[in-house]
Amino acid sequence: MAPRLLFALLVAIGLGASAAEHTAEELPASDAQQIAKEAYIYGVPLIESYRALVAEGLDSANPRFQAPLNTLTSEARIYAPGDRGVKTPNPDIARSTAWLDLRTQPVVLSVPAIETDRYYSIQLVDLYGFNFRYIGTRTTGNAAGRYLIVGPRWRGEKLEGVSALIRAETDFVRAIYRTQIFDADDLDRVREIQGEYRVQSLGEVLGWPPIDKPQISPRPIGSTRGLDFLAALDLVLQFCPAVPDESIWRARLAKIGPVSGKGFDSGAWSAELRAAVNAGLDEGRAAVEAETSANRPPDLYGDRAFFGADTLKRAAGALLGLHGVSPEESLERLYVTDSEGKPLDGAASQYVLNLSGTNMPPTEAFWSLSLYDRSSEGLVANPIDRYRIDSLMLDAMKRDAGGGLSLFIQHASPGADWEANWLPAPDRPFYMVLRLYWPAPDAVSTWKAPLLFAEPPSQQPTPTSFAAGAAQEVEPLPVSEEVKPELERPTEWGEPTEVRVGVFVIDVDQVDSAEQSFAASVYYEARWNSPVLRHKGPGALHRNITEVWTPRLSIIGQQNAWEAFPEAVEIQPDGEVVYRQKLWGHFSQPLDLHDFPLDRQKLEIHIAALGLLEAHVKMVPLEREEGRKSGIARSFSVPDFDVVSWNAGPAPFTPFEGEVATAGFKLQIEIERQIGYYVLKVIIPLCLIVIMSWLPRWIDPEEIGPNIGISTTAFLTLVAYLFAITVLLPPVSYITRIDRFILLSTLMVFGSLVQTIVNSALVRKGSAGRLARSEHASRLVYPVVLGIVLVVSFVG
To answer: Given 60, 182, 266, 377, which is the most exposed site by the fewest CB atoms within 10 A?
Structure first.
C-alpha cells in the first residue's frame, strides 16, 4: 500500500503545482466558477471596510465624512425623545472614532488615567473585519498608557515608554472608542476624557521631520456587480499585504486576477470564462445573503482566531453591521415579546422583569436596560425622564420581602413606593434592549436573559420571585383556539430555527451485505428554543409532539424500528424544547463490495427535517454542558467488522438530484471488514485445492490412473466447495475481489485437469522428451501463477 500512497501523493503534488501555474484563460470553467464564488465571499468585508474608509476618512464631500486620517472625532450627548438621527440610540456610551493610516509609520494612541469605576474600550478593526485587539478596561485596565499601532510593513521594535506594541495586518485600521456615561451630569467629565485621548503618528511623538505620505485618491467603489467586484477587490488588496494565514486565499484569487493592486484585466477572457466567473460571483452573493439570514450578532464578530477559515460568517457580519463589537466586550439582548411570545404593548399589558438570583445580568463592568418606541425606534417621553435602568441604580431600588428585585415596565406609575423600579413605557408598542458591558464568561456561553412576564394593565403590579429554588406550580401554557403560536416555527425575524442535534450509536449488531442494510441501536436528541413556550417552572413540562412545533425529524433509510420512548417533548422553563428518542431497527445502506472481503464501508444515520429547507431549519451539533457530543460506543456486537473512524455534523438531505435540500444531520461510521474469517473459510481451502491439483506434476506421467484420479478429484472437490461457500459471498452483479480469486483458482484447477489429460495422450504416443520438459516447467510455473493470482485478487 505504501508505494501506491507515495505514487498518489506524487501525482497530487504534480497536479497541484501544475494547477498553480494556470492563468485565468487556462482554467477549466468549473474551477474558475468555484474560485469566483470564494472570491466574492472573501472580498465582501474588505470592500465594505474600504467603502467606510473612503466615506469617513478620505472623501470630505461624502455625507458620512468624519475626519481626516489619524484624526479622532468624538461625540458625547444624552439622547432624548424626538431625536430622529439615530435608530435605537445607545444612552450608555459616548463614541469616538478614527481611521489610522499605517502605511509610512506607526500611530500612537494615548489614553489618560480613567476612574476605575468607569468602563471604556478601544476596538481596533482591520480591513478584513477582524477585531484584532482591544484596549481598555477589560484588557489593559484604566491606567494611563501609550499604545503603538504598527502596520504590516513596519519592522521596528517596541519603544521605551510604550505600554504595548500592537501589530495590524492591513495598512488602514479603524479605532472605535466607547466611554461610559453615568448620567447627564457626567457629560462634562466624559468630554474631558475624550479630549485627552490622543491619536498621533510616531514621528509627532518623537519629533521627527514630517514624512511625505503616499497619496491615495478617494476612489469610491460604485457597483460591484459582475466583474466590477473583482476590480474593486484588486484595488483594496494593495492595502492588505499577504500574511501566512491568507496565502491560500491569495493564491487561489490570483488564478482569476485580483493580485494586490496590480490591475485587474479580463479583456482576453473568453465568453465561456466570463460566464463561469459571473456565475461564481452570483453564487457567492447568494451564499452571503443566505448566511445573513441564518446568523445574527454577536455570532459574527471577533478576531482571526474566532473566524478561522469561515470567510462566509465574516462576510455576513460585514453586511449585517460593519465592524460590530466582539461578544466578550459587550452583548445585547433584545426584548420584542413577552414570556408568551406576544409583542410588547404598553396599552395592552404591564410587565415585570425579575432580576433576582441568576436572573441578574452577569457583567464585570455594568449593564443597562433601555426602552424604545416600536414605530420611531427612538426614546419615549415620560413624566420622570427615565429612558433606561442600569446596574448603577440598583442600590436605590426597592426589594420585595424575600430580598428579590423586580423591574416594572408599564405606562402608569406603579406607585411612589415602587417608582425607583419603574421603567416607563408608552401606551403603544415598544421594545427594549438589554446591554451587558464586559460580560462575564457565562453570559457569553450559557446565561439566558430573564423572562418578561405580562399582567393586565388594571392589575396592581406585584414583584415576582422566580429565582432558583422558588417552587412554582407548573401550569399548561394557555393557548387560544384561533391562534396557536406554539405550532408556529420559532423565529424572531424569519431567520432559520437553530436545532441542536446529537446522535449516539449504542450498538451495531449486523451488517447485511445481501440486503444492503445494517441493524443498529441508536439514541438521538434534538434541542431548540421556542420563546412562546417559556414558563415559570421550576420543573419541565411534557407535551405530545403534536401540541408544539417540531422539526419533523426522521432517519433516512429506516426500514423498520422499535422505539423506546413516547413521541413527546420536554419543555424547560426558559423555552428550550428537548426531543429524545431511542430505537433499534434496520437501516438501508448502499454498500460498495468491489473490494470484498478487504472492503471498508460507511454506515450512516442521516436525520432529516422532512419538508423543512435549510432556510427554515439550521442543524448544528449538540454539545451538552458536560461536553458530551454525538458519539459511538467503544465496541459493537457485529463480529466481522472493526471501526476505523466516525464523524458527525450537519448534512443536508437531497431526495432527488436537482431538488432543493432539506435540513439534515448525519453521523457516519467507517468500518473495515475483518479478513481473518474469509482467509480461514475461503482463501486457504481454495489454495489447498489448487495445490492438490498440482500433485500429478510430481507423479510419474506413465501412472495415468492416479494422475487422472487426483486431477478429477481436485476439480470435483472445488465444485462441491464452491456450492458450500456460496452463502458466505455477497450476491452482487459485479465481480468482487473474492470472486476474482475464485474464478482464477477454478481456471487453474481446470487447467491442471486439462494438462493431465494431455500428458496421458503424450504417454500413449511415446513423446517422453516433450512430456518431461512440460512437467518440469509446470512444477515452477504453478506456484508462481498462484502467487500472481493472490496478488491480483487481494493486493492490486
So the answer is: 60
Round to the nearest angstrom and report the end-to-end CA distance of the chain.
9
Does this model's pTM top 0.70? no
Supply the DSSP string of 601-634, one letter for each residue: EEEEEEEEEEEEETTTEEEEE---TT---SEE-S
Residue 11 exposed, middle or buried by CB count within 10 Å (0-12, 13-18, 19+): exposed
Q: Among residues 431, 429, 470, 428, which one has the least CA distance to residue 452?
A: 431
Query: Strand (E) positions, 530-616?
Result: 541-544, 553-555, 558-563, 568-571, 576-588, 600-613
CB 328 within 8 A of CB 443: no
**Helix (H/G/I), strand (E/B), else coil: 489:** coil
**Angle made by CA atoms 238, 241, 245, in degrees to the nearest 5:** 135
DSSP 32: H
Amino acid in position 99: W
Closest by alpha carbon to 552, among 586, 573, 526?
526
Phi and psi based region of residue 21 (left: phi greater than 0; alpha: psi -120 to 50; beta: remaining) = alpha
Q: Are 36 and 207 in contact (CB under 8 A)?
A: no
The x, y and z cell numbers of residue 786, run together, are 498462484
| 3 state SS of 308 | coil
Strand partners, 350: 455
Q: Quick one: which of 426, 500, 420, 408 has its CA closest to 463?
A: 408
The residues that bridge with 125 in the sheet, in sequence order, are 131, 174
pLDDT, one tens digit per residue, over 342-388 is: 889 999 999 999 998 888 999 999 999 999 999 999 999 999 999 99
Beta carbons of 667 and 605 less than 8 angstroms apart: yes
Instruction: Please choose, from the candidates 541, 552, 450, 543, the residue with its C-alpha nearest in 3D space to the C-alpha of residue 497.
Output: 552
Q: What is the 3-state secondary structure (H, E, C) of 644-706?
A: EEEEEEECCECCCCCCCCEEEEEEEEEEEECCHHHHHHHHHHHHHHHHHHHHHHHCCCCCHHH
Residues of the chain with pLDDT under 70: 1-26, 213, 215-218, 258-263, 267, 293-298, 458-486, 492-493, 624-628, 658, 768-769, 796
Written as nine digits, the cell of 127 is 480591513
Separation CA 438–CA 302 (nearest Å) = 14
| pLDDT of the residue at 478 | 43
Residue 136 dihedral angles phi and psi, to the nearest 5°: 145, -165
* Phi then psi dihedrals of residue 672, to 5 deg: -125, 130
C-alpha cell at position 115: 476612574
